[in-house]
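Objective 1b: paired records.
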Amino acid sequence: MKNDLQTCTTLHNGVKMPWFGLGVFKVEEGTEVIEAVKTAISKGYRSIDTAAVYQNEEGVGEGIRQGIKEAGISREELFITSKVWNADFGYESTLEAYETSLKKLGLEYLDLYLIHWPVEGKYKDTWRALETLYTEKRVKAIGVSNFHIHHLQDVMKDATIVPMVNQVEFHPKLTQEDLRAFCQQNHIQFEAWSPLMQGQLLEDEKLKEIADAHGKSVAQIILRWDLQNDVVTIPKSIKEHRIVENASIFDFELSAEEMEKISSLNENKRVGPDPDNFDF
C-alpha cells in the first residue's frame, strides 16, 4: 500500500526506492537548490533526483547535509540519484564522472546512478562502467533514462545486469503504454520525469473536473495517477507550499474510471526531446 512519502517500491535487486521524490532539473545552484532540498527532506521527502548536467550537485549536497541535520535522520534513510552526462560517456570517463558527482555531492555513495540519454554507439560502454560500479558496491542501484524499448533490448543483449530503473518523460499526454509494459515484464522500475508536463496540464478541463471532485489540485490528481500506475515520480518545485502540496497525495484514491479518463488524454506528445532524435 502506498500510504506515505516514505513508502517504497523494491527494485529487482532488493533495494528499496521511494515512490515519490523531489526533482531539481533547472533549479539554480546555490541558495535556491539548497533550500528546496532541505525543505523537502524536512517535510518528509526521502528521495532526491539530480544529474551532472543540472550543474547543481554541490547545492544538492549542501541541502542534503542541512536537511539531514534538521530532520534528525541519517544519510542511509535517503535515496539519492544522479546521472552521467552524454559528454562523459565511455568506460573510463563514466567511472571518473561518478567520482566527480560524489565529490560535488559530498557523498560516499549514490543510491541510483543513471545513463542520462541513449547516445548511439556510446551507451553500452557506459553501461559496462555502471555494472562495474555496481559489482564493486560503489552504488546501490543502476539504471537508464530516456531509453525506448529498442535501446533497452540493445543494452540487455550484452549486459550482465538488467537496468533497475528507466526514467523517462511520462504524463497524461504521453502515457508510454508499450514502454511501461516492456519495463514491467523485465522488472525495470518505470520512473517519470516532467510528470506535470512542465505545468502545461494544470489548466486541463477534464483534469480540473476530477480534481474538484476530490477537493485536490490538478497537480495532485496527476501525481496520484502516477502512483496508482506504479510509476515512481519526482516533481520539481522550489516553493515550500508546492513541495508540501505535491506530496499530499496519499489521503485519497482515484477510481478505475477516473484513471481511465486521465489515461485517455494521451496524444503521444512530448515536452522534451525524443530519445530517437536528439543532438546533445
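Objective 1b, second protein:
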Amino acid sequence: MAVQAALLTILVATATVVLANGDVPIPENEAQVNTWFNQNIRPFGERKGTLDPNLVKAEEGVKIIRVRKDGSEDFKKIADAIKTIPAWNTKRVIIDIGPGEYHEKVLIDYNQPYVSLVGSSPKDRPTITYGATAKQYGTVDSATVIVLAPYFVAANLIFKNSAPRPDPYKKDGQALAFRINGDKAAFFNSKFIGFQDTLCDDRGYHFFKDCYIEGTVDFIFGRGTSLYLNADLFVIGDKGLTVITAQGRGDRVSTGYSFVHSRIEGTGNSTTFLGRPWGDKTKVVYTYTYMSNVIQPGGWSDNSQTSKNFYYGEYKSVGPGSSKGKRAKFSKQLTFDQVKPFITLGYIKASTWLLPAPKPL
C-alpha cells in the first residue's frame, strides 16, 4: 500500500508540473477544447501557489463598480468609473457594465492594473463605441478603448469604432476599436468591430477565447504574443485590399500570433491575405482553422519586401481557402512538432497569470 501511495503521489505531482508548464497541446477535436481549457486553467482558489504573487494579492481583494446607462447604479459612464481607480491600484476592480450602447472613448492607463470590464449579460452584450480616426488622434490613439495596464480582463462586451470605411490606399483613415498594450491580458466572448486596423494587439502576452473580430485591412495588428482560440474572423472583402493580420515582430523574436480552431469567413471571393509583414519580420500561425473562399490561393503577402524574414505557418486547416497547392513559397506547412509550441498555453506563459472567464455578477 505504501508503494501504491508513493506512486500515486508521483503521478499527481507529474500531472501538476505538466499543467503548470502549459505543455498540453490544444486538442485537434474542437469538441474537446472547452474541457481541455477547464482542465488546464483551474479556478483561482486552486492555483494560488503557482500564480504571480501580486496577482494573488489582487484577486483576494476584489472591488465591484457597476455602470448602467439609466443611472440606476454607481455610474452612467464607463470612463467615469475608471477615473475612481487609484494610481498603482493593487486590487482587482471589476467594472460591471449593463446592456446598451455607450458612446465614449475609454482609457485604462499604465498605472491602473487589475481592471476587468465585464458585460452583465453574456447574451445581451453592451457596446462601447466611438468614431475617432488616425487623422484626429494618430493611428494607435484612435482606439475606442485603450488599455496600457497589465492584468486586464474583458468579457461579454462589444468594442466598436463607428468611423466610416476608409480608402486603404490613403493615409489617416485607420480607426481602431481596441488597443491592448498591457501585458497578461485576457478577452472572453467579446466582439471587435471596425474596418482598417480594428484591433491593435500590441506588446505583451494576450489570450482571446470565443471572440469575433471584423475588418478590412490589417484588422489584427501589432507586436503582441497572443493566442486566439475559437476566434471568428470576418473579412469585409467586397472591394479593395483586404488583409487579416499585420504582425510586427521586429527584433522581438518571441512575439507572434497563433490562431487555433478559428473560422475565417466574410464577403469577397479569393481576395484576402492571411497576413502581411509589418516591418521586416512577422510571425503568424493558423492551426485547425476553417478558411472560406475569401482567402486567396497564395494565402500570404510579402508586402513587396525582399528580406523574407517571415514566419508564416499553417497546420491542418480546412475549407476552400486552405488549399496548399498555390501557397506563397515563403510560407510553411508545419509538422506537429513544429506547430506544438504555438498550440499550448505555454506560448503565452499562461500558468502564472491566466484565469477562467469571469462570471456575470
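Helices lie at 2-21, 33-40, 53-59, 78-83, 134-137, 336-339. The chain has a mean pLDDT of 92.
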